[in-house]
Design brief:
The structure is a single chain. Strand 3 and strand 4 (44-49) form a beta hairpin. The chain has strands spanning 2-7, 13-18, 34-37, 44-49, 54-59, 64-69, 74-78, 85-93, 96-104. The protein is mainly beta. The chain is 0% helix and 54% strand. It has a four-stranded antiparallel sheet, with no helix packed on it. Mean pLDDT is 80; it is low at 21-29.
Length: 105
Amino acid sequence: AYVAFMDGLGGGKATVMKYDSIYFGINDLHHPGFHFYPNPAKDKITIETTGFSNLAVLSADGRELIRQKITPPRTSVQTDYLPLGIYFIRMTGDNTVMMEKFIKN
């Protein structure tokens, strides 16, 4: 199954996600210039990147829960108050939108 949505805050860019199973998985791709850890997360995640300027954490149903600027080379995002579950990190930069999933334990 594929899910597509338009990001009004990201200049109207579209994002398409491919779900690879009924267990709510997304194909795990490794993107050059972007790395985050730990996954699963507990209190915070650390994002290492130089190619993106903004990030958002989205719930599994697409609601934006966190939005913040990225400060290269490393940005921390507090996740301690998020309920347990699956979330997505949406990274935006010049002409680029990328999403990754993480699990909150």
